[in-house]
Amino acid sequence: MTQLQVAIDLLTTEDAIALATKVAPYVDIIELGTPLIKSEGLSAITAMKDAFPDKLVFADFKTADAGELEADMAFKAGADYVTILGSTGDSTIAGAVKAAKAHGKAVVVDTIGVQDRVKRAQEVIKLGAAFVELHAGLDEQAEAGYSIQVLIDEATRAGVPVSIAGGVNLDSIQAVKESGAVVAVAGGAIYGTKDPAAAAKALKEALN
């Protein structure tokens, strides 16, 4: 079954927890976006895990170096998942996986900026990543002609556990599920609406 992940790109812990409180009944994974972590630091992770101990907390570090050290920081702060960039070296990913094993947690490799996402996904699963985020970032989504269908097609071809992030909404979520993705990541489709709880509920029902 495909899990639902909310990506929270707000800039204060207070706002992030307020949003999470509304959507928590309908999501499996709460992601603290990179801007939020850069704005508030590790304390945002701890605050979120303390507020929602029954949810998986996803720290979107997008680590490019010092994989073991940064992953260790995230896990000590309360994260269940931490992201390492797929464009970085194998040793950085392997280091993060080492930290994850020590904590009983998991590494997700983010393919933002990777040219051949499918190939890299297959490589990093062998390094011990729990799953790979096929990710079109906000800037890529804003480019003319962008379509989430690219990620959906890649997920179908990858043959390894992946999540899809980059324009998941009610129109696309069925195709995301059918691609075999283990996680669907929704950001703006939840926090950009007048009623985030209703939006999250609708997405969860579509997945079920």
UniProtKB/TrEMBL annotation:
Entries under CDD domains matching the protein: KGPDC_HPS
Superkingdom: Bacteria
Residues in Orotidine 5'-phosphate decarboxylase domain copies: 3-203
GO molecular function: 3-dehydro-L-gulonate-6-phosphate decarboxylase activity; hexulose-6-phosphate synthase activity; orotidine-5'-phosphate decarboxylase activity
Pathway note: One-carbon metabolism; formaldehyde assimilation via RuMP pathway; D-fructose 6-phosphate from D-ribulose 5-phosphate and formaldehyde: step 1/2
Pfam families linked: OMPdecase
EC number: 4.1.2.43
Catalysed conversion reaction: D-ribulose 5-phosphate + formaldehyde = D-arabino-hex-3-ulose 6-phosphate
GO process annotations (BP): 'de novo' pyrimidine nucleobase biosynthetic process; L-ascorbic acid catabolic process
Regions crossing the membrane: none
Keywords carried by this UniProt record: Carbohydrate metabolism, Lyase
Protein family: Belongs to the HPS/KGPDC family. HPS subfamily.
The protein's name in its UniProt record: 3-hexulose-6-phosphate synthase
Species per Swiss-Prot/TrEMBL record: Leeuwenhoekiella aestuarii
Species lineage: Bacteria, Pseudomonadati, Bacteroidota, Flavobacteriia, Flavobacteriales
